[in-house]
Each structure stands twice: as C-alpha cells, then as structure tokens.
Amino acid sequence: MSSWLADTIERAEEVNDWLSPKRKKSLSLLKDTRWPTRKTEAWRYTPVNNIERARFNVVESQGAPATDIPHLNAIDIVFIDGIYNAELSSKHFPEGLTITQLSEGNSSSWALDSFSKTKPERHFFGLINDALATQGCIIDIAADATIEQPIRIAQSFKQGTQTHTRILMRLGERASACVIEQLEGDELCFNTSFAEYQLAASAKLEHYRLAMQCADAISLGGCHFHLAEKAKLNSNLIGFGSQLSRVDYDIIHAGQFTDSKFNVIYLLDGKELFDLHSAIEHTQPNGKSEQNIRCIVADHSNAIFNGRIHIHRDAQKILAEMNNRNLLMSENAQINTKPELEIYADDVRCAHGATIAEIDKEAMFYLQSRGLSRNEAQVLLSFGFINELVDLMNNQAVAQWLRPILKQRFAAMEVS
Amino acid sequence: MTEQLDEALSREYEAGFVSDVESRTFEPGLDEDVIRRISAMKDEPQWMLDWRLKAFALWKKMPEPDWAHLQYNKMDFQAISYYSAPKSMDERPKSLDEVDPELLRTYEKLGIPLIEQQQLAGIAVDVVFDSVSVVTTFREKLLEQGVIFCPISDAIREHPELVKKYLGSVVSQKDNFFSTLNCAVFTDGSFVYIPKGTRCPMELSTYFRINELNTGQFERTLIIADEGSHVSYLEGCTAPQRDENQLHAAVVELICLDGAEIKYSTVQNWYPGDENGKGGIYNFVTKRGICHTNAKISWTQVETGSAVTWKYPSCILKGDNSIGEFYSVALTRGAQQADTGTKMIHLGKNTRSTIISKGISAGKSNNTYRGLVHMGKGATGARNFTQCDSLLIGDKCGAHTFPYVESRNPTAIVEHEATTSKVSDDQMFLCQQRGLDPEKAVSMIVNGFCKEVFKELPMEFAVEAGKLLEISLEGSIG
C-alpha cells in the first residue's frame, strides 16, 4: 500500500461524527480495494499516479469564491477550499426547503440512511470521500414544494489544498427544484466532490454540474441519482478538464415511468484530461433515458468517455438512447470512448452511437470563402456543435453566462 | 415444404455422434515431457521444440483472463489430454484409399465427402481429426500453381523457412493466456502459402472435428498470401455430444502482403451443451491478420455452437490503403455464452475498416459484442464504420455491447452505432397474417436480420449457415 493511501486511511480513522457508522463500512472496503492502475478497467485511460506523488495540505479557507452567475437569483451555498462560508451563503430559504451543513446532521435524520446509498460501492475515490468528507450540505425539499429559485452550490479551490465535500439531497413526492453545482479553480489542488440525489415519486430535478476546474487541478467526483416512480431528471454537465478530472454519473431508474435526460459538453485544451463514466441503470419497466455527449479536444488533451446502459431482467418497455459525438482537433490529442450496452430484457429499444472526426473541411472552406478567418470559422463551427446542447438548458441565466465563456475557450484552443 | 421444415425444426445437434475409432491418446496432464512427446510424434526439428518450450515457460507465469462477460468453471489444464490421434494414422496414409473407412464414414455423415471425384469442383479440404490432419485433398493440383496447402506439421518439415519467418509474427508467443498455451501444445492445423500474383484456383477449407473424450483441440493455422495474391478460406467445426466440457484453443494467423487479399470464413458449430448448460465446447480462439500496403483481410463468421465462445478475429492495418472487414452472426441459445467481436488497429494512411456484427440471443443465453477500433497517430484519412445489432428472443436472455473506440488522429473518422431490439410484434403479425406459422416467421425475420453477413459467405456456407440458424431457433418462441 502506498504511503499516500496509508496516510489517508489513518486520517479517516480519526474522523468521528454522526456518519461514522457509514464511514466505517466504506473504510473497510477501501482497505480491500486496490489502487487503480492501467489494468483496472474503470481507470484504463486515466492515470492517477499524480495524486500519490503530490503533497497537499488540509488548510483553512482563504481563497476567493467561485465566479458569480449574473441574473441567476440563486440560493447560494458557498464553499471555499472545501469549507463552508456562512457569510457568502444565503441565510433565508423559501418554504419547503431546508439546508443543513453536513457537520450539523444527526444520526436520526434521513440523511444517514441515504449517505452512500446511490453511490457505487466500489468507487475508489468515492470511498475516500465517504471516509473523509466532513464538509458539505444536506438539502431537503418537502413533498409538493416547488422551489422557484435555483440552488447554487459554489465551490472554489486554490493551490495546495486537499478537500472532500459531499452533498446529500432529497426531493419529496411531487417536489421540484433546480440545483447548480459549480466547481472552479485552476491551481494544483486535490478535491473529491460527490453528490447523492434521491428523487421521490413524481419529483422533478433540473441539475447542472459545471465542472470547470482546469489546468493543474486534480478533481474527482460524481453525481448519483435515484429516481422513484415517475420522477424526472434533467441533468447537464460541463467539463473543462484539468491535469486529472474524473466524474462518475449514476442514474438509477428505480421506479416505473421514470425519465432522465443527460447532456454533456466537454472542451479540452493543453494537456488536460477529462474522464466521464456514466451508468444508466433501468431496474423497472417503462423507463426512458436519453444521453447526449459532445466533446471537443485540442492540443495534447485526452477525452475519455465510458457510458453504460444497463437494463435489468424484466425491465421491459424501456427506451434508452445514447449519442456520443467527438471532434478531434489536433494531432496530439486523443479520444477514448466506450459506449456500453448491457441488456437483459427483450421488449426494449436501445441504441447508442459514437462518432469521432475533425471539423468538416467543406464547411470550413465555405466559411473561409465568405471572408471568415480560419480561427473564426473554427470557433463558429465548433461552437455550433455544442451550442445545440446549451440551447436545451432550461435555465437561461446559466446558458447566457456559459456561451461567452465557451466561445472564449474555443478561441484560445490550440488547433493543428 | 412443410415436411422439410418440420424435419429441420425437430433436428437436434446433428453432429453429436461419436465415431468408433481406436485412438492413441496421451495421458491427461501437461508438462515439458508432454510437449517433447508431441514434438516427437510430429517429427519436428529442434527449433520448433525450443519455440514450444519457450512458450510453455511463458504460459506458466500467465494468469487466466477474466475480463470477458462469461461465467464458466475454470478448466483444470492438467485434466486434459493434449494429444489424440486415430491409431490408423500411425502410418500416414499415402492416399485416400489407405484412410481408415470409419474416418471416411464420419465425414460422410457430417456431409463432407472426401472422395475427390464426388466433390463439388473448386474446394480443397484439409481434415483435422482430434490432433492430426487426416487428409488434404487436391494438394498436388494446387501445387501446380505454386499454392502450398498442407497440414502445418508437414509445413514445419517441408517449408521451415516460411514457417520460421511467419509463425508467431502476428500473434506473438506471449499474446494471451490461450494463444500461449496453443504455442506450446498445438498439434495440427492448416498451412497455406499463395505465391506472388496468384489467384488460388479453388476455395480452401479446413474441417475440424473433436472426437475423443477429455481431449482438447489446439490447432494452428497459418495463411500467407504473397504480394498480389488472392485466397478464400473456409473453416468448419463440430464435436460429439458429451456431458463434459472440452477445450478448443486455436490460433489463426493471416499474413497479407502488399496488394493481397484473404477472405476467411468460419461456420462454427461445436457442440453447445444441453439446455441447462451441461457439456459443450469451450472455444477460446485467437485470430489475427496483418495487412500490408493495399492488402485486404475479410473475416466472416457464423457462430452458432460452443458453450462458451471467446473469439476476436482482428486486423492490424499496417500498410497504407489496407482494408479490414469483419462480418459476424453470433447466435446463442440454451445456456450458451458468447463474447466475441473484433479489433481493427489502424496504423497506415487511408486504411479502412467495416464491422458488421449481428447478435441473436434466445433461451437463457448471453451474447456479447466486444470490439476495439484504434486509430493510431499515423492513420491519416482512415475510416471505420461499425454497426452492432442485437436481437433478443425471449425475456431470459441477455445482449451486451462493449465497444472500445480510440482515436489519435484528427483526420480519421470513426462511426459506431448499436441497437438492440426484439422481433417486433408488427413484423410477426404481418408474416402470420400471410399464412406463415410463428416459427417460420421468426426464422424468416432472423434470416433477414443476418442477411448483410450471409451475403459475404461463400455460397455453400451461406446455405449451411441459414439452415443452422433455422435449426438453432427451434422452440425459441412460444
């Protein structure tokens, strides 16, 4: 066992709070789980050795908060370097919404039961997060409540920090809400950030994860959703990629007539790496799921996607689709994609498609012949490629805030 | 017509009989002595034995792979006999007249007449029975054109320069657990060499038969198509119906030099075990070809047999403008499991590959497509198109797709699509409304589903494959 892991386990053993009964189990699993290498299927294209090599401190919160999203009018929950900042966070919540800090939870609440319930048991860094996440929040939305204001969970990270945060959210029956998870920072740091969402029957969740940590950051995390009967999820993920960025999505359709949509955009530049593993589990009949993953990679970057659709035995009448499209813009960049289907029911319709190509040369020529510079044409075309997904976002404030940021990123991309 | 159909549908695994042939079989077990004995039986030169022993040393250190979507009881490699040959083969028969009549009857029963006069003109057959090649037809006639078609054990003695140069050049000795085992203990198989600029005048084929109990079959096939040549090769296989699992671990290497073309077709019909998964062949096969400039390799396979199939015929597209193709129909029923697919490694410029895979699962079976498309840094202008369709018949089976797509070159274009569906009620209704019974309707729909692959098969095989599907689907609906 590496000294890094030994050290982590030692720290984890010192944690003692209301979640300890759950943490113990994860800790013992962690001890049995081997450090991921190239031979570990889930980490095949994503080397994690840098984590072992680098040294991080657990520091007091000092940095700046994440960028504000104009016109969002959100209920803010702000974490700086993994520590809750009460001053910058909202204090008053509308009726039906309760937000508690993870450190203030108690063992009699529902949260203890739902902690680590939807997250896959064997996720290596998920286990580390289970054991070490003492910061985070518990969001509870009462049945029939509709929270109009989006809830923004803003996290920012600066040089040298090691942080572990956890979000637990429950939506009561017929409740509806919008959650935006925003992660920012470009300096060398190591953070794990996992979120678990429980959607009761007929609940609706609009979800955004803006995984915009870039450059030197090491970021590992995941969003895990559990959908009860007739629950509806619309999730969007924006990934920028960094030295090491890994996100795991699990959408568990645990009731009948559930519906999930998952749209992903990732844009990578420099030596960035972004690894997305998504798993859609249909355990009950009559569900529907749709995924759209669009990815642009430039320079020396590396995009990894592993998308799995799993239809359990007797989960009939499922409609599941996955569409993965990639633009490879540079000779030194790489794309590794693996769209998987695992199907045990016969009366289902499942399809996936994956394509990898460069920008259409004829389209480039067309635009250039009309006076656009090569770079302008490239920005226009690649922006068009992902703008389709931005257009699908329900929250206009987020979409409007994103567009110029994405455009700027395109313009700066190193293209061969 | 109906009578014929009834007959076809009521047939069980036809090739499941055992031939009463007296055999010389090694005691079960595997060590260096066994390998020395195999080598001695084959009258092999020293370099070949050294090569085998080197592989055996490597194999002992390798773990058995467990990444495939398969569940089976691991084999005891010491409980298998690694060599078995009919006693009548002690003295190699010089001509067909000298071959044991019981052996000839076996092949007659399987529908493979060996008597050359009775043959459909245009097919030369190499027949492998357990560990030996019984007979190779049309050898002399082919030699007139310079085409060498013989058992690999003969080639090792007679054409050592070719064998030395190419054996293990595509599937290296340490490639994987099963291929390394094969390197150590392979017994027979076919060797083909097509000289420069020659179009092989007839189809070549090899027919594999496992007969003895508790033996494994480890055949090795090496096909070399020299510059500008063309060959079409067919492969078929069957085994008796037994309660024990038997291992078949073959290695096939194709070398396709500049401008050559190899078409390799397989109809795999090993005994699949009974409905509950008792018995059947474990089929762990490594097949790979290398394409040089402007060369083309086309793999076509129809997989209906075996309890467990683990097979990934692949192409290394090394030369510029080379082409790789993979057409596959895999049908599983009962408790069969198949994990099959292909790898297309694009290294050269303007290389192209097409993958069409059709998986049909029925009963309690599981059918998996596992593939890799790799676009290397030098694969400028390369293209791949992949289509994997799965059809589920019944609600107890599974269909899975695990495609790996890796691209390192922006000018390469990769397209992958996969669908899963069942035989739709509308299609069934339409067929039945026009007077077809349900079973015939399913058979017709499935045949349509596989059409893209069947059209790639040589004519005789296409007929056989269509029939096989029909028989295999019997009782699948209801």
Strand-helix topology:
The complex is a heterodimer of chains A (416) and B (478).
Chain A: H1 3-14, H2 20-32, H3 49-53, E1 75-80, E2 83-84, E3 97-101, H4 110-114, H5 124-132, E4 135-141, E5 151-156, E6 162-171, E7 176-185, E8 190-199, E9 204-213, E10 218-227, E11 232-239, E12 244-253, E13 259-268, E14 273-282, E15 288-297, E16 302-311, E17 319-328, E18 334-343, E19 349-357, H6 361-369, H7 374-391, H8 396-412
Parallel strand pairs in A: 1-5, 4-6, 5-7, 6-8, 7-9, 8-10, 9-11, 10-12, 11-13, 12-14, 13-15, 14-16, 15-17, 16-18, 17-19
Antiparallel strand pairs in A: 1-2, 3-4
Helix pairs in contact in A: 2-5, 6-7, 7-8
Chain B: H1 2-10, E1 23-25, H2 32-41, H3 46-60, E2 84-86, H4 101-109, E3 123-129, E4 132-136, H5 139-144, E5 148-151, H6 152-158, H7 160-166, H8 177-185, E6 190-194, E7 203-209, E8 220-225, E9 230-238, E10 245-248, E11 251-256, E12 261-268, E13 280-291, E14 296-303, E15 308-311, E16 314-317, E17 323-332, E18 337-340, E19 343-346, E20 352-362, E21 366-375, E22 383-393, E23 398-407, E24 413-422, H9 425-433, H10 438-454, H11 459-472
Parallel strand pairs in B: 3-7, 6-8, 7-9, 8-11, 9-12, 10-13, 11-13, 12-14, 13-15, 13-16, 14-17, 15-18, 16-19, 17-20, 18-21, 19-21, 20-22, 21-23, 22-24
Antiparallel strand pairs in B: 1-2, 3-4, 5-6
Helix pairs in contact in B: 2-3, 3-8, 6-7, 9-10, 10-11
